[in-house]
Amino acid sequence: MYAKGDPRATLNTAAAPASAATSYKGASYARFYAEAPQHEEASGRTWYARGQNLVIAYSEAEAGMVLEAETVDEYAVLVPFAGTSATIEAAGGSETLNGPAIAFVPAGPSRIEVTSGGVVVRMITTLNEAVVALCSNASAYDTPDPNVAPFQPWPAPEGPPRIRAYDADVPDEPGRFGRLFRGQNVMINFFKDSPPRDTSRMSPHHHDDFEQYSLCLKGSYIHYLRWPWTTDLSAWREDDAEECKAPSVAVITPPAIHTSRSMDPGGNLLVDIFGPPRADFSAKPGWVLNAADYPMPDTAD
Fold it and tell me: What InterPro entries does the entry give (predicted)?
């Protein structure tokens, strides 16, 4: 259910009924501001939290901090704020991100050096077990979510593996929803700073079979979730109305009906993350800003 004028009202999935689930996994909330980091050194701190398919690694870095990884597949990097810079080295090449910017880093060894301090966020699949082990909620998915579809990466871009970097400071365009970028494993919707939400224009909706990671980078949000009833009363879940300040991530599980409310008069910044990319968003012409680089699967609608 979307308010009049919301671009998502044109999606083929907008009016789809909730899936016939028989049991539900609750949402997961990682409030980094209220938790000790999983890694801390003189040059910065990093928090790790997971869903079923992705790990969110949130770093507050000083200049000189180095983030190294050896991944089995492509991962995404977000430098959300102006004034932060980071140089990525991978697959025999390098790219410098000047925030706000997004990059997709190929499998194998990689190195990120923060050259001007600030926030750096990495989005890595849970196929990377060493990263999963670092998460504050590492065991939360020992029992998988039965309603999340099996993870399938999207097709690789043409040409040899390389870092693909994008300026995320993109102006709004009528009819386009947010600022969407996709790789093989991750889709990022990088919204703009927003005031408190008009509560007469909420957007309750659901996803049949995929998670949404809502990363709060500024201000605060209340995440409202409601799970459909089943014939088994013991499977019913209480509604959620969870306030999460910056920095935090909410992992919203399907098929919960959900919507989020920005709260802070000083501004709010949310990033929605999906793994793998969303077919419905990708099918909308002009919505995915780097669509020319990353092909859709033949089976995507």
Answer: RmlC-like_jellyroll, RmlC_Cupin_sf
Closest Cα to residue 177, out of 17, 289, 45, 65?
289
CATH 2.60.120.10 fits 7-282, yes or no: yes
Residue 93: both structure tokens together: 């090449």
Beta strands in the chain (DSSP E): 28-31, 39-41, 44-50, 54-61, 66-71, 75-79, 85-90, 93-98, 101-105, 108-116, 118-125, 164-167, 180-182, 187-190, 212-218, 220-226, 240-245, 248-252, 257-262, 269-274
CA end-to-end span of the chain? 21
**Rounded Cα–Cα distance for residues 86 and 118 (Å):** 9
Pairing between strand 257-262 and 248-252? unpaired
Sheet holding 93-98, edge to edge: 66-71, 108-116, 85-90, 93-98
Q: How many CB atoms lie within 10 A of CB 111?
A: 14
Q: Which two tokens stand for residue 88?
A: 């990525």
Q: Which candidate, 135, 105, 99, places its Cα nearest to that of 119?
A: 99
pTM above 0.90, yes or no: yes
CB 140 within 8 A of CB 50: yes
The 10s digit of each residue's pLDDT in 30-42 is 999 999 999 999 9
What is the per-residue DSSP string for 232-245?
-GGG----EEEEEE
Kindly list the distances between the CA atom of residue 132 and the CA atoms of 46, 79, 87, 197, 255, in Å, as whole numbers in the listed order: 13, 22, 24, 34, 24
Spatial CA neighbour of 160 closest among 88, 91, 80: 91
Contact 168, 102 (CB under 8 A): yes
Handedness of CA 189, 192, 197, 201 (dihedral sign): negative
